[in-house]
Write a structure and sequence with these properties.
It is a single chain. The protein is of the alpha+beta class and 106 residues long. The protein contains four helices and five strands.
Length: 106
C-alpha cells in the first residue's frame, strides 16, 4: 500500500489527507505577517492545513490555530475580510460549481 501523507487541521486538530485540506501560507507584508490560501499546496515555506469545514475554519481563525502553527502572531483578518478561505472551501466542496460544462465533439 502506498503511503498517503496526512496533515493536522489547525482548527479541529484531527489528521486528514492533504488532498482533502486547504493549505494556508504566511506572507510578509511590510512589518506584519498575513495569511494567504495556497491553491497549489506547494508554495515555499511553512504552511498550515485546515479542513474545508466551516467549523474547522472558524476554530482556526478564532482560537489561534494559525498563530500556533506559524509560531508567530499573524493577521487573520485579511483571510476573513477577503473571503479567500470561504472561496477555497467552496471550490473543494463544489468543484464543478461555476465551471462550464465540457461538451464532447462529435
Amino acid at each position: 500500500a502506498a503511503h498517503r501523507p496526512s496533515r493536522t487541521c489547525v482548527g479541529c486538530r484531527e489528521t486528514g489527507e492533504r488532498h482533502a485540506m486547504i493549505r494556508v501560507v504566511r506572507e510578509e507584508q511590510g512589518t506584519s505577517l498575513s495569511l494567504a490560501v495556497d491553491p497549489s499546496a506547494s508554495a515555499h515555506g511553512r504552511g498550515a492545513w485546515v479542513h474545508p469545514d466551516p467549523a474547522c475554519i472558524a476554530f482556526a481563525l478564532t482560537r489561534g490555530g494559525f498563530q500556533r502553527s506559524f509560531r508567530a502572531p499573524v493577521d487573520v483578518a485579511a483571510l476573513e475580510r477577503e473571503g479567500t478561505l470561504e472561496r477555497a472551501r467552496e471550490a473543494m466542496t463544489h468543484p464543478t460549481r461555476g465551471a462550464e460544462p465540457h461538451l464532447e465533439a462529435g
